[in-house]
Design brief:
Blueprint: H1 2-30, H2 42-60, E1 65-67, E2 71-74, E3 79-81, H3 91-112, H4 121-131, H5 138-156, H6 163-180, H7 185-200, H8 204-217, H9 224-244, H10 264-278, H11 285-298, H12 302-315, H13 322-336, H14 345-360, H15 362-367, H16 369-396, H17 400-413, H18 418-450
Antiparallel strand pairs: 1-2, 2-3
Helix pairs in contact: 1-2, 1-3, 5-6, 6-7, 7-8, 8-9, 9-10, 10-11, 11-12, 12-13, 13-14, 13-16, 14-16, 16-17, 17-18
Length: 468
């Protein structure tokens, strides 16, 4: 009987195995040799209590919230439970079992949905690992993690010269612990410690791969703030290295393990993006945004820089980088503008930014007044160039009304500038030409009126004017 119970537990997991054993006991106790039901059996009561507890947990589990290190917290009762719905009396000892039991129950559901699922390649591989002792094992995971923790503490206290190689070895031990107990709190801890080993051994690409794995698998990880800080430092280092010694995007890095294999600049700005996307409400989200924007600005990719400055202005209104986002955004608008023959939208947006800077940042505007005013003057000059181009167009076509409209607007809107004085001069010239043209036409009209009676009548046949 003991072997049968062990087989049930090994095959179906703790939860399903417990139910199966209770069913066996119930069938054996409820029916005697005479076939009558034994209503007073303690096993029957235990089974009914277990079934009722299971039904209660199925109804309330969706309201429970998993708390790392404690279990599943149910607000209605104020208690912590494991994945099977049992109260957690010893959280430190049972919390890992809660995560593992939860994963095992999910695997059981998937396995029971199809008779052929056990023949899937992934399941076959899992069965092979389990048969060879390399499958999921809480005990093996805990042992590997404790050994790695002990070695990590010893290495931190040793000389710096020998730390790098030893940390890489310990990283492998943490990786083994994570693989031995998937979907558990220990896996999250092991993955983070593995990433930290790579980080402190200056293998930043490998460290970022592990940080990315944690964020993808545990989006609300308790290590998220520290992961963002590590990523930020890695991105700054990659960016500084690229600026000190720029390399081509397709040129491989074959000697420095702290840098990506290709495109150091691209990996740096991508890492800034991952920080603000993975943790948009984090402390470093706005810092990563402006860092990426400044990187693109210095790389003369003004369109992408402008997008990021705009994102910072809209998404982080309380950021300490708001003034820089406005001022550098203004510069981007002027650099994006391609001339009077192209779209004027960048100039309109630049005008709005100047107004916001003067209205919202009084103290900062006082310090950067000369730069802001110079940029505003440049915006006005380019807008005047657009109006001058239109005025010249109509002037060349002898369309006096259109030309006078634009010359007049330039003279009024941009007073005190050189282009305004030129527009005013041209307006006076056009007025003189119109008056001269009007007097000339009047003289011709009067002459025709006086000579109208002496003109010969028109000939009906053009052949009459041909003399032989």
């Amino acid at each position: 009987m003991d072997m049968r119970m062990a087989a049930i537990f090994n095959r179906y997991g703790f939860k399903a195995g417990l139910i199966g054993v209770l069913v066996v006991f119930c069938l054996g106790c409820r029916f005697g040799s005479n076939g009558l039901v034994d209503q007073n059996s303690d096993v029957i009561k235990a089974y009914e209590i277990a079934r009722e507890q299971e039904r209660w947990w199925e109804r309330n589990r969706q309201d429970a919230q998993y708390v790392p290190g404690r279990g599943y917290h149910l607000p209605a009762t104020g208690q912590y439970y494991n994945a099977s719905g049992r109260p957690m009396e010893h959280a430190d000892e049972e919390i890992q079992a809660a995560s593992f039991d939860d994963a095992s129950s999910g695997d059981l559901v998937e396995e029971s949905t199809s008779d052929s699922s056990s023949f899937r390649p992934r399941n076959i591989l899992d069965q092979y690992k389990a048969a060879t002792g390399k499958g999921p094992s809480r005990d093996r995971a805990r042992k590997a993690y404790k050994d790695a923790e002990r070695s990590y503490g010893e290495v931190i206290r040793t000389a710096v010269e020998t730390q790098q190689e030893q940390l890489l070895e310990i990283a492998g031990a943490y990786g083994t612990a994570a693989k031995a107990w998937p979907e558990s709190a220990l896996e999250e801890d092991a993955l983070f410690k593995e990433a930290e080993c790579y980080y402190f051994s200056d293998d930043y690409p490998e460290a970022e791969d592990r940080y990315e794995a944690i964020v993808q698998k545990y989006p609300n990880s308790r290590y998220l703030d520290l992961i963002s800080a590590r990523r930020f430092e890695i991105a700054k280092y990659w960016l500084a290295t690229h600026r000190a010694k720029p390399t081509r995007r397709l040129r491989p890095n074959l000697s420095n393990s702290s840098l990506p294999r290709f495109d150091t600049f691209g990996h740096a700005v991508k890492l800034f993006d991952r920080i603000r996307i993975d943790d948009p409400a984090g402390k470093l989200a706005d810092d990563a945004t402006i860092a990426a924007a400044n990187a693109y600005f210095k790389a003369e990719n003004y369109h992408r820089a402008d997008q990021l400055y705009t994102d910072l202005r809209d998404a982080f209104p309380d950021s300490e980088h708001q003034f820089d986002a406005h001022l550098l955004g203004l510069k981007c608008k002027l650099l994006i503008y391609q001339g009077p023959n192209y779209d004027e939208e960048p100039l309109k947006e630049a005008t709005k930014l100047v107004k916001k800077i003067k209205r919202q940042f009084h103290q900062e505007y006082g310090k950067k007044r000369e730069m802001v005013d110079q940029s505003f003057a440049e915006v006005h000059a380019r807008l005047a160039d657009r109006d001058w181009l239109h005025a010249q167009y109509y002037d060349r076509r002898r369309e006096t009304q259109g030309a006078r409209f634009y010359y007049d607007r330039i003279a009024r809107k941009y007073q005190g500038t050189k282009v305004a004085s030129e527009a005013q001069q041209r307006l006076e010239e056009l007025s003189t030409e119109v008056n001269r043209s009007s007097s000339r036409f009047s003289a011709i009209k009067e002459f025709l009126d006086r000579q109208g009676d002496d003109l010969p009548p028109l000939l009906e046949n053009s052949e009459q004017i041909i003399q032989p």
